[in-house]
Automatic annotation (TrEMBL):
Tagged with keyword Transferase: yes
Domain of life: Eukaryota
Requisite cofactors: pyridoxal 5'-phosphate
Protein name, UniProt field: Branched-chain-amino-acid aminotransferase
Source species taxonomy: Eukaryota, Viridiplantae, Streptophyta, Embryophyta, Tracheophyta
Entry annotated with the keyword Repeat: no
InterPro entries named in the record: Aminotrans_IV (IPR001544), Aminotransferase-like (IPR036038), B_amino_transII (IPR005786), BCAT-like_C (IPR043132), BCAT-like_N (IPR043131)
Organism: Oryza meyeriana var. granulata
Pfam families noted in UniProt: Aminotran_4
GO CC terms in record: chloroplast
Length: 322
């Protein structure tokens, strides 16, 4: 689809940073060739994600299963859920797990939510060696808490870690960390229909290093926060400003993974769009600068309507409009 510069697009959005925790989208023709590819193995229903070898296997049906945690009717915090937006609300606990140069993560633990101590020479602070994920937990009327395909977020983090030369938690470690963090903060899961609990897993190079290289230590952390709709108007059409100067991703780059460095670069374009009365930015591809690439904070779906332009002067069997 070709767009004119400075065109304004409107779309119904599925909001949330990182596309609300959805699985990686199919590779576009201008995406980097180094992106890990999903390969189906000889075993029926098995899938491996690999660049230099298999890093994960799962049943093809597992992506259709929703994880459910039965928590009973837990007491909720005294909070004005009607005013809930998308901003940081500190909760009770977070999860921490560390890994050294041997690539093996130690047993994680829940700790009170608060600052994480880092050396000024940490790889994440100096060279941006870090990844993030994002997904949500929803409370049902019976008190149980639901997640949608959290294993896909775990696999996406492993793909990103491979690209940045980082060790990553196994899918099982990732899911266990998510579960423990949610249950420790279950009183912060909003009532049904009032919002959701946003879950933010982080994988960072926390070890100190001076030269450009992999860090000697890594930290995997999970914190949670109750949120409402990402956009202030909720599930309503939003106005998008097409960006003609900056690009979100480029062939051979890291646009296909959720590295932390991908996000600071969109702040300037997003601020400019806000000043012009728009909700977000629509990016074009960096090669041809005319094909739709993505929106910075949500998915975008387009429906192409087929229209037949008829020359009524040449067609005499159609009734002309009055």
């Amino acid at each position: 689809m070709e767009l004119l510069p400075c065109a304004v697009a409107r779309a119904l959005a599925a909001p949330g940073p990182g596309r609300g925790g959805a699985a990686p989208s199919p590779m576009h023709r201008h995406r980097p060739l180094s992106r890990p590819i999903l390969k189906r193995s000889a075993a029926v229903g098995a899938v491996a994600v690999s660049r230099r070898g298999p890093v994960a296997r799962r049943s093809r049906w597992s992506t259709l299963v929703t994880a459910a945690y039965n928590t009973g009717t837990a007491d909720l915090v005294d909070f004005n859920w009607e005013s809930l937006g998308f901003q940081l609300v500190p909760t009770d606990f977070m999860y921490i797990m560390r890994c050294w140069s041997d690539g093996v993560f130690t047993k994680g633990e829940l700790v009170p939510y608060g600052p994480i101590e880092l050396n000024p020479a940490a790889a994440v602070l100096n060279y941006g060696q870090g990844l993030l994920e994002g997904l949500r937990a929803h409370r049902k009327e019976d008190g149980s808490i639901l997640l949608f395909r959290p294993d896909e977020n775990a696999l996406r983090m492993r793909v990103g870690a491979d690209r940045l030369c980082m060790p990553a938690p196994s899918v099982e470690q990732f899911l266990e960390a998510i579960k423990l963090t949610i249950l420790a903060n279950k009183r912060w899961v909003p009532p049904t229909g009032k919002g959701s609990l946003y879950i933010r897993p982080l994988l960072i190079g926390s070890g100190a290093i001076l030269g450009v290289a992999s860090a000697p230590q890594y930290t995997f952390a999970v914190f949670v926060c109750p949120v409402g709709h990402y956009f202030k108007d909720g599930l309503s059409p939003i106005s998008l400003l097409t960006e003609e100067e900056y690009h979100r991703a480029a062939p051979g780059g890291t646009g296909y993974i959720k590295t932390i460095g991908n996000y600071a670069s969109v702040v300037s374009a997003h601020k400019r769009a806000k000043e012009r009365g728009h909700s977000d930015v629509l990016y074009l591809d960096p090669v041809h600068r005319k094909f739709v690439e993505e929106v910075s904070s949500c998915n975008i779906f387009m429906v192409k309507v087929c229209m037949y332009v008829l020359d009524f002067a040449q067609i005499d069997f159609l009734c002309k409009s009055i």
